[in-house]
Amino acid sequence: MRFEHLRQRVERAEARVQRCMDRAEDSRTHLREHWRLGWTPPRIVVAGLVAGFLVGRAEPLARIGAARWLQLLGTTSTMLASIRAAAASATAEEAAETAAEGAATAEFAASAAPAQAAAAAADAVAGARPQPAPTYTYAGPPPGAPRAPAPAEAATDVSER
């Protein structure tokens, strides 16, 4: 066979593969749309009831020691709740620090604003360059501010609810 003939066969085969892939993608999209439209609330409830009946009929937990599995599930859920509580506590602590810092900055800016405005007006009148704004560091929360709970306290609070 000639090279040109082989090249044409390869091009036809590639075009055929591309058409098959396009058809498969269209079919997948069509199936996905109809699958989602088909799951109406009554059908979901019926499917849940049928699945629950079949699982209950098979009695799988009686064969594998239900008490151990239930204990494992309880322990796992408690552990996950304490992890979430610790993360929430850390987030709350960061938010409290940010709020306290913002309040302190706003308070300082409010007290320093008239003096800075007068100095800027005097510099503008004199023709001098304005001075850059001073930078301030955060000294921590004010005394007597409420503190965020420790992770263990937050976990206990969440598990008691």
Number of domains: 2
The helical percent reads: over 70%
Oligomer: single chain
Q: Measure the end-to-end span.
A: 80 Å
Which structural class fits the helix and strand makeup? mainly alpha
Mean pLDDT: 78
The string of secondary-structure elements, in order, is HHHHH
Largest sheet: none
Question: What is the strand tally?
Answer: 0
What percentage of amino acids are in beta strands? under 5%
Round the Cα radius of gyration to an integer and report it.
Answer: 34 Å
Number of helices: 5
Indicate the low-confidence ranges by residue numbers.
none
Please provide a written account of the structure.
The chain has 161 residues and is mostly helical. The chain has 2 domains: 61 residues; 79 residues. Helices cover 81% and strands 0% of the residues. The protein has 5 helices and no strands. Helix 4 packs across helix 5. The longest helix is centred in the middle third of the chain and has 61 residues. It is flat, with a radius of gyration of 34 Å.
